[in-house]
Write a structure and sequence with these properties.
Elements: E1 3-6, E2 12-14, E3 31-33, H1 37-44, H2 49-52, E4 54-59, E5 71-77, E6 90-97, E7 100-106, E8 115-120, E9 126-133, E10 137-144
Bound molecules: fe (ii) ion.
Length: 145
């Protein structure tokens, strides 16, 4: 799979670079090829996997959006909770639904856990969660709805 990274905001684009980054709006030339982005993280820090691979739970019944179709995707980083300190934190989780980028949750080190809930309008398909650690790089999980 071809992977491109936005040098401004760190967003990953799969298959091809977009005309403009959907997160920060930088033009296509802000993206550079980075096919090994996940392999690199794992090779650099294999012991870090348990604290970085997004741990994902699909909840078919949404409590927040009962009036529309909604599948909840609950994600935490990781199976062993990642630290959230000024020097070492999860900076964002990006969510892709059926290969289309859908949204991002950004984090600081101030009073928040590295966890989020995405309320997906689709009731079937594949959801990809990508997280970035400021020290240990990019990690990904895919789940079926
Ligand atoms: Fe980390």
């Amino acid at each position: 799979m071809d992977i491109y990274i936005c040098k401004t905001c760190g967003h990953l684009a799969f298959e091809e670079a977009p005309d403009n980054c959907p997160v920060c709006n930088m033009p296509k030339d802000a993206f550079k090829s980075k096919n090994n982005v996940f392999v690199e993280s794992k090779e650099k820090s294999p012991e870090a996997e348990v604290k970085h691979v997004p741990s994902v739970k699909v909840v078919k019944t949404c409590g927040l959006i009962p009036e529309d179709t909604c599948t909840d995707v609950h994600v935490r980083v990781g199976e062993v909770l990642h630290p959230m300190t000024e020097g070492h934190l999860i900076t964002f989780i990006d969510c892709y639904v059926n290969d289309v980028y859908s949204g991002r949750v950004m984090f600081t080190a101030n009073s928040i856990n590295p966890a989020a809930a995405f309320h997906i309008k689709e009731t079937s398909g594949t959801v990809r969660l990508v997280e970035r650690c400021n020290i240990h790089g990019y990690w990904m999980t895919e789940v079926e709805l």
